[in-house]
Amino acid sequence: MDVDHALAPVILDGESLTIEKVVAVARFNAPVKLSEGCYEAIDRARALVEKILAEDRRVYGISTGFGEFSKVNVGHEQSAQLQENLILSHCVATGTPFGREIVRAMMLLRANALVKGNSGIRRELVECLIEMLNKDVTPVVPRQGSLGASGDLAPLAHMALVLIGRGEAWYEGERLPGAEAMARAGIPTYHLLAKEGLALINGTQCMTAIGTLVWYDLDRGAKLADITASMTMEALTALTSAFDPRIHALRPQKGQGLVARNIRLLLENSPTAEASRDLRVQDAYAIRCIPQVHGAVRDSIAYVRSVLEIEMNSVTDNPILFPEDESVISGGNFHGEPVALVMDFLGIAAAELCSISERRLERMVNPSLSNGLPAFLTPHGGLNSGYMICQYSAASIVSENKVHAHPASVDSIPSSANQEDHVSMGTTAARKCRTIVKNLYSVLAFELMAAVQGIDLRGIQDKLSPVHKEIYDLVRQVVPFCEDDHELRVDVSAMNELIRSGKIERLVERALPDFR
Hints:
The structure is a single chain. The protein is mostly helical. The chain has helices at about 20-25, 40-55, 80-90, 100-115, 125-135, 155-165, 180-185, 195-200, 205-235, 245-250, 255-265, 270-275, 285-290, 290-310, 335-365, 390-405, 425-460, 465-480, 490-500, 505-510, and strands spanning about 10, 30-35, 95, 140, 140-145, 170, 175, 320, 325-330. α15 (about 335-365) packs antiparallel against α16 and α15 (about 335-365) packs parallel to α17. The longest helix is centred in the C-terminal third of the chain and has 33 residues, at about 425-460.
């Protein structure tokens, strides 16, 4: 995402939020506004809550307790206290707090769900969330404690605490009591009224926030995987025949064709690739099957995007109000199963990109597999170990990913006296996926560092495709050729910083406008 200029405001209307807009607000501080048309819908739903109270209707969460306590009636005069008690009793998440961008995404997603006008909250509380985003007041939200049904109750309760002048928040670099943070930012706090506590915390916004940011990073990572793989192909004098469009037309999986085309673009006009055509009949799977493996990941990414963008523009609390006929219906839209399943799916996809990247790295450091490169990519083996332990480290990360890729969504544990007897574990799935995607960048950094070293050792740095030469030069600006053993941690750190910076993708996208 280009952030060299002020980002346009993100307008919340409950219908048109996208992954890119969420990232713009959460990560790059784009301002947020409410659509003028949303106020009427919010006010209609609030009016229905007031009417329900006036008529003493029995409605879950408005005139009853929560979960198993739905059997307990709560009087009109206690309805406001019920909502504040909900927040106070549910703010029991634990562990290291989420990073700022995840909490900001949560706030944005919750506001977007509320503006649809089916939750019964006052417009002032929605405006409060928006003002917190725009003035950068970020609640402290511990990361553990959500079952993913009834939504992300515990983490969202920590978010809601700050709206009522409690909890903790970050403001201007300080971790402060919530009331103090709000006062310093000039934002009023509120006492909750009927239905409002439930409207703030009953939903899937934590798992969707994590998932949205993870999706964005994996979409980038998948492009980087194509780029690093093509650089490895130069280093290994790989064949290009397996990327022939005729092959992929016979198995028209969309992602497969896209990746094969990317590799062809990246290798176009490469003297090394041209000279390698007749060196052997075929390459190993880690090279030959790049379109099939990377392409399947691309298809997974495309599917997950559709699920996340539906979720972020949905009403996921309970009960849901329908002001047009004054219905109030208890349902299950808070259940995180749609997000849980795709987060597990996305984590598996990211783990596969890591796995095949590490196999390409192994081929470069292993003299039995590298088509002539010196062992462990060092010109002076024996006295020097070269990149031997880079592969160890990458292998360790790949094996760790296998643990994280075990699906969280196949687990369920009952809660609330078995009223909530099947849960999604969607937030756990999203958190695990986030770890895998972070690990992916580390493995790709090892692969690209090794590919550039292999290119130097083969003496082909001036016989690369034009775009690969630019990438080579960019890498060599931060990571020198490894002639003798030295503190490789410095090179690894610099390579990781470069691969996460976005500079490589931007370079490729400028050089190859058709690269996707």
